[in-house]
Amino acid sequence: MDAAAAAVSTLSALAVFASTLDHGAVRSVHGYKVYGRGGRRRWERWVEREFVLTPASCREVPAPVAPPRILPAEWRGRPAYREGQVVAAGAWRCILAFDSAAAPPRTPPPVLSPFLNPRLMCVPSLYNDLEKVFRFQNVEKIPKLMQCDSEEKLSSWDARDKSSDEVHASESDSDDDLQSGEEEKPTVQKQRRANKKHIASITLVDIAQYFHLPIREASRTLKIGVSILKRKCRQYNIPRWPHRKIKSLDSLIQDLEYVIDDGDDHDDTGDDVQQEKHKQTAEEKQEAIMALTRRKQMLETEKETIQQIPAMDLKVETKQFREDVFKRRYRAKKDLAND
């Protein structure tokens, strides 16, 4: 068994805070339990992140989290939060509190719902954990509910999409499968979805910027219909929209990041035998982390390759690793439920 598959992380807690001073600023605190072989818990890690979440922009703040922090710099222990709680000298108010040991929240607040804030999917480090808590259903239909900055712009796009959907009803509605269905038969359109010059000007480089989004979200961003985007993809020899492959690789990479960037445990006992055992454990842990780092670099390289060659399938080794991670995560959750 590959050492990189020797550990897997499971979301154990998630708390999201809205700024009381800066509209749109959001911070999150993520707790991850890391398990080894046989579902044995090895260590726990906590991460604090910052985002800007508005209907017009959803992005993660790349810079380190600025003070006042919600988590202390050298955090040890297990924090507990509740909705409505104000922390960090009144700068942040808790709008979501989840703990795996308690019943999950029934619904997320509007800013954390992809159905009301579709651009939330553009920040996978937060969205993927929210999905683990709420198990969003029919997520591929989210762009239909999308609220844009300009209601007039949205209504005009919807009118064109509706007309085009009636014309291209024979084409497959699948978000990813671009192979099913034949080219549309010539027919008279009552309304054009987009200007022909605009459609002709869209290049592979333009399309590649949105491979990380669902195809419907990408089509709206490009201001063309899904059917036209599928035709453009076939024109560039892209049989399937690569969003799901990229999303799967992102999830695996993030899982590895949580495992790699862990805190070191310290043993203050003076017993020579205990110190030797601790040294051996630390060495084994370091070897496992080095193997995980190599695996992460391979996945990042594969993701970059797929973004350049979207027709390429995931490697067999990657599929096996993903399956092993799923199995270990299932066993870890089962063991956690039995504790």
Q: Order of strands side by side in the largest beta sheet? A: 4-3-2-1-6-5
Shape: globular
Per DSSP E runs of 2 or more residues, the count of β-strands stands at 6
Task: Give the percentage of residues in beta strands.
Answer: 5-15%
Provide the structure class.
alpha+beta
Q: Could you give a short account of the major beta sheet?
A: 6 strands, antiparallel
Distance between the termini: 27 Å
Helix percent reads 25-40%
Mean pLDDT: 75
- Spans of at least 5 consecutive residues whose pLDDT stays below 50 are 144-174, 180-191, 263-270
Give the H and E element order: EEEEEEHHHHHHHHH
Number of helices: 9
Radius of gyration: 23 Å
Characterize the structure shown.
With 339 residues, this protein is an alpha+beta fold. It has a domain at 3-67 and 77-141. It is built from 9 helices and 6 strands. Strands 4-3-2-1-6-5 form a 6-stranded antiparallel beta sheet. α7 packs antiparallel against α8 (272-308). The longest helix is centred in the C-terminal third of the chain and has 37 residues, at 272-308. It is globular and about 70 Å long. The two termini are 27 Å apart. The model is unreliable at 144-174, 180-191 and 263-270 (pLDDT under 50).
Secondary structure blueprint with pairings:
Layout: E1 8-19, E2 25-35, E3 41-53, E4 58-60, E5 86-87, E6 92-99, H1 124-134, H2 151-167, H3 196-201, H4 204-208, H5 215-222, H6 226-235, H7 243-260, H8 272-308, H9 316-338
Antiparallel strand pairs: 1-2, 1-6, 2-3, 3-4, 5-6
Helix pairs in contact: 7-8
